[in-house]
From TrEMBL:
The active site is at residue 698. The gene is Hectd2. Pathway: Protein modification; protein ubiquitination. Keywords: Ligase, Phosphoprotein, Transferase, Ubl conjugation pathway. The keyword Protein biosynthesis does not apply. Coiled coil: none annotated. Residues 391-730 form the HECT domain. This is Probable E3 ubiquitin-protein ligase HECTD2. It comes from Spizaetus tyrannus. PANTHER family: HECT-TYPE E3 UBIQUITIN TRANSFERASE, UBIQUITIN-PROTEIN LIGASE E3C. InterPro entries: E3A/B/C-like (IPR044611), HECT_dom (IPR000569), Hect_E3_ubiquitin_ligase (IPR035983).
């Protein structure tokens, strides 16, 4: 009977997502960051189309939902009268525990869960009001929680009666749309803690299947009701769904479940329901749980590239791929997808260069397979700009850097050094491209007008090259920058389309210019007469090279006073001017530079926060984790020199620890996978202890002489890591 249930491909679910996206324009701004961008749509992100043609590379947003979605409201059937209260139930449970007679409790559970009507009769706040609004589910959450908290401590026959009742409810023949009482029942059943047990997974799977197959309007209600669940229970629901997906992929006891060929719909159904919780989470500011709590690390162990190619190639054939739901894929897994996609592009570009050379009957040269950048340290920025401009067609080849006059061979170390020095020069305040804001400890684009924005394109290309070549950079951009960088994630074909423009809020400004944002916030909450006391207009002033210039925030803005009635509009236009309009040309050049290298449909999988981690790595250093993952060559971890080394390093200040990491690896940032991903190695150097330590940054290797005592090791190590610029050959 269950198998005869909804066998459709959930086309209504994709309609729901599409409708949400179309209605997004009418929604107020939110503080939570958006995720994905598609051409010609202002906002971005989280759920992709379910059955739309992925080859069109479109992504649909479900980050914000309309306040109401018109749907036919069916008359609710009359409910049985149930008068048991929370206290009555708790008294029954206490009596059963003391007497051993569970009949009253058994009767309550078997009756309550026997049908959807009975579930509503027991847990609906009031039998009379229909509770047809998205803001109030009408569920007595406290009673539900008490009943479920007690359930797992009842005898087995009580627990079995609940599962039997759920099966009866799911087996009912459904005709036409579901009522709000049905949705309430689904919402309550999802919270059943029994579904954490694998023995209940067949029932759980059918519950998820029915929920996934609901209409767009029904999903809309479930999303809004779910955001009212407490943080702890919301996290439990998400973890239960993630566990269900993991154990279906890699069952500990395969015999517990039906064969995979007979239940291919299990994982898609669970993932689609998880998407509803992800949407609910994004509606709350701050979110109930972190976006990383939706990651399923089990997916790190499946064939990710097959998932990626399925997502690209089979969009209109109802073929499921986890890439349709990128919120479930961890940043480590996304990094693997991007790296392999980059490698495939590198190989393809290199092969094409080789074919072109051979077809012209020219002798192939190995250098043609790489992006060879040759620069002088004394003219680093200008040389780099010239090289990248001349070799624009080679940007997707493997990067190799040569410093003129130095004998170092680039096996990765020189590339890291080039990035580090170039970023340091470009972001220096004297260079004038970026302004450093001390209050927020981040850089932002200078709004000064200039004739040539090519250097902003260079910075974008550098960031793209870093992601493309798996290099982490020490760049301190605010989160808003990465949101703009994914607006849209795929460069539009129409060059007249605006790029790098996204919805910005006062919260975004707080992350860059907290003092100014605080002033605007004070303006919004000011209780006096704004027009008379502030005497402001819709006009702003900026200093450019010693000259004060004025800009209207709207037509004739200099003649429109800011009042109590229009101050919200003033603040929004001011924020938009600072973060979008005043720096449009600078950021557009930066955007095109980044995407000239990093153009990939894999970017559609990323949130802005994840792009930041890919570009910058993590600034949090855990030297104890590095100690645990370090490999040794010529030493044992118990050797005296190694014990001295870690005693010294763990006692270093954060600044010295960063210098050590930079000395040994070429970067002071931690990659996406953590310290273990560095593959750090300490080798024994068979040289005099008068020598300083030597590093092979290409291989993240530190060559350490066998110093006789801790004091000598510390002295030589500090000298070595504090004088670590330049490369040579022994």
């Amino acid at each position: 009977g269950l198998e005869r249930g909804a066998k459709n491909q959930f086309s209504t679910f994709s309609n729901f997502i599409t409708t949400i996206n179309q209605k997004k324009e009418g929604i107020g701004n939110r503080n939570s960051p958006t995720q994905l961008v598609i051409p010609n749509i202002k906002n971005v992100r989280d759920l992709p189309p379910i059955c739309l043609d992925v080859r069109q590379k479109q992504r649909i947003s479900i980050d914000t939902l309309p306040q109401e979605l018109k749907a036919p409201i069916l008359p609710e059937p009359s409910l049985p009268i149930r008068t048991k209260t929370v206290k009555d139930f708790q008294d029954d449970v206490e009596k059963a525990k003391s007497s051993g007679d569970w009949k009253a409790v058994h009767d309550f559970y078997s009756t309550t869960f026997d049908s959807f009507l009975e579930i509503n009769a027991a847990f609906k706040k009031d039998n009379n009001p229909p509770f047809n609004t998205i803001e109030d589910s009408g569920i007595n959450a406290k009673f539900v929680n008490v009943v479920y908290d007690a359930l797992l401590n009842t005898p087995q026959d009580v627990q079995k009666s609940v599962l039997k009742g759920i099966i009866n409810g799911l087996l009912q023949e459904w005709k036409g749309p579901r009522t709000k009482d049905d949705l309430r029942a689904y919402c309550i059943l999802l919270q059943n803690p029994q579904f954490s047990n694998t023995s209940t997974y067949v029932i759980y799977a059918h519950l998820l299947r029915q929920i996934a197959a609901l209409t767009e309007a029904d999903h809309h209600f479930l999303v809004h009701w779910s955001k009212k669940i407490s943080q702890r229970r919301f996290k439990q629901l998400v973890d239960r769904l993630l566990q269900f997906i993991s154990l279906r992929l890699f069952p500990a006891k395969p015999e517990e479940f039906p064969p995979m060929v007979k239940c291919t719909w299990w994982i898609p159904s669970a993932t689609k329901v998880l998407a509803l919780f992800n949407a609910a989470n994004s509606l709350v500011s701050p979110p109930l749980i972190s976006y990383t709590d939706f990651y399923n690390s089990t997916l790190d162990h499946i064939d990710l590239m097959e998932e990626y190619h399925n997502w690209q190639c089979y969009g209109n054939s109802h073929r499921f791929s986890f890439c349709q739901y990128p919120f479930i894929i961890s940043i480590a897994a996304k990094k693997v997808i991007i790296q392999r996609d980059s490698e495939q592009q590198m190989i393809s570009i290199a092969r094409q260069s080789l074919v072109d050379k051979v077809s012209r009957r020219q002798k192939p040269d190995m250098n043609m397979l790489f992006l060879n950048v040759k620069v002088r340290r004394t003219h680093l920025v200008s040389d780099s700009l010239d090289e990248l401009a001349r070799k624009r067609a080679d940007l997707k080849k493997k990067l190799k850097v040569t410093f003129v006059g130095e004998a170092g061979l680039d096996m990765g170390g020189l590339t890291k050094e080039w990035f580090l020095l170039l970023i340091r020069q470009i972001f220096h305040p004297d260079y004038g491209m970026f302004a450093y804001h001390k209050d927020s400890h981040c850089h932002w684009f200078s709004s000064f007008k200039c004739d040539n924005y090519s250097e902003f394109r260079l910075v974008g290309a550098l960031m793209g090259l870093a992601v493309y070549n798996s290099i982490t950079l020490d760049i301190r951009f605010p989160p808003c920058c990465y949101k703009k960088l994914l607006s849209p994630p795929i460069v539009p074909c129409d060059h007249n389309t605006l790029v790098g423009i996204c919805d910005v809020t006062l919260g975004d400004l707080f992350q860059i210019m907290p003092e100014l944002a605080h002033g605007l916030s004070e303006l919004l909450s000011y209780e006096g007469n704004v027009e008379e006391d502030f005497y402001s207009t819709f006009q702003v002033f900026q200093e450019e090279f010693g000259v004060i210039k004025s800009y209207n925030l709207k037509p004739n803005g200099d003649k429109i006073p800011v009042t109590n009635q229009n101050r919200k509009e003033y603040v929004q236009l001011y924020v938009d001017f600072l973060l979008n309009k005043s720096i449009y040309k600078q950021f557009a050049a930066f955007y095109y530079g980044f995407h000239s290298v990093c153009a990939s449909y894999a970017l559609l999988l990323l949130r802005p926060e994840e792009v930041e981690i890919l570009v910058c790595g993590s600034p949090e250093l855990d030297m104890s984790a590095l100690q645990r993952s370090t490999q040794y060559e010529g030493y044992q971890k118990t050797d005296l020199t190694i014990r001295y080394f870690w005693d010294v390093v763990l006692g270093f200040s954060l600044d010295l620890q960063k210098k050590l990491l930079h000395f040994a690896t070429g970067s002071d940032r931690v990659p996406v996978g953590g310290m273990a991903d560095l593959n750090f190695k300490i080798s024994k150097s068979e040289t005099s202890t008068n020598w300083l330590p030597v590093a092979h940054t290409c291989f993240n290797q530190l060559c350490l002489p066998p110093y006789k005592n801790k004091k000598e090791l510390k002295q030589k190590l500090i000298i070595g890591i504090s004088n670590a610029e330049g490369f040579g050959l022994e």
